[in-house]
User: Fold this.
Amino acid sequence: MSAPVVRIGTHLVGRGEPVFVIAEIGINHNGSLELAKKLIDGAALAGCDAVKFQKRTPELCVPRDQWEIERDTPWGRMTYIDYKRRIELTAADYEAIDRHCRDRRIMWFASCWDEPSVEFMERYEPPCYKAASASLTDTPLIVAMKKTGRPLILSTGMSTMAEIETAVDAVETDDLLIAHSTSAYPCPPEHLNLNMIRTLKAQYPECVIGYSGHEVGLAPTWAAVTLGAAFVERHITLDRAMWGSDQAASVELVGLMRLVAHIRDVERALGDGVKRVTPAELDQARKLRRRPSAAALPS
Assistant:
């Protein structure tokens, strides 16, 4: 079987194509359109291929017994349901985000946490959807995203192999991308288990396999590329000390620029695995080899 490839918007992902880099804004905008725009600008400047948000209907996603629990927030003390409403972007915000991303020539899409959010996102014709790790066992939701006819990225954190297999069976493997992930924020290196990328590639050779990371630092993401991740996703932030559950596991914009630049270096360095002698090596051989081998270098 030839290596799989999936088209996401204007990009092909997989089968020797450049690694598709997703900057996960998620809810790190804290409900602020201006903050969201700054994060989009940073992702575009760094050379990311897409930004991703999280779209929820709080009344459907927050368990009813947690609605009235109070918590301290940057906007004062409020109930949990009011807090979740406060950090959701409005329909007008998403209209502005759509325009801003078009102006910056960067794709955008979302992880939808409920079926009405899928219906809402369809108005923007996103290039794909992503099912968050928490949604992997929500079969009606992942089927709703797949039924749009758009590619689906399935994240596999906090999941057993049996749960992954059940989810894949539910949505089938056409235009399916699977992301290895460990859902700890931030995730210690010893729990990353990057070799799962190889395991998923072996189990699902017809799917494009990638990596969604929540670690501190950049090296594991580069390692994921060397292990064959065709796409990578990292949360981004303006400041890891900002309010929010995902900020500490995110990459600041200077780090994001390094992340993308070195992914491109790794791609160039990996090559095709066919041994050949470079022109620079020919010069070295002529200077340094006392006796050419039987399989002499070309003159």
Q: What stands out?
A: DSSP finds eleven helices and 13 strands in the chain. The chain has a mean pLDDT of 95. The CA atoms of residues 71 and 77 lie 6 Å apart.
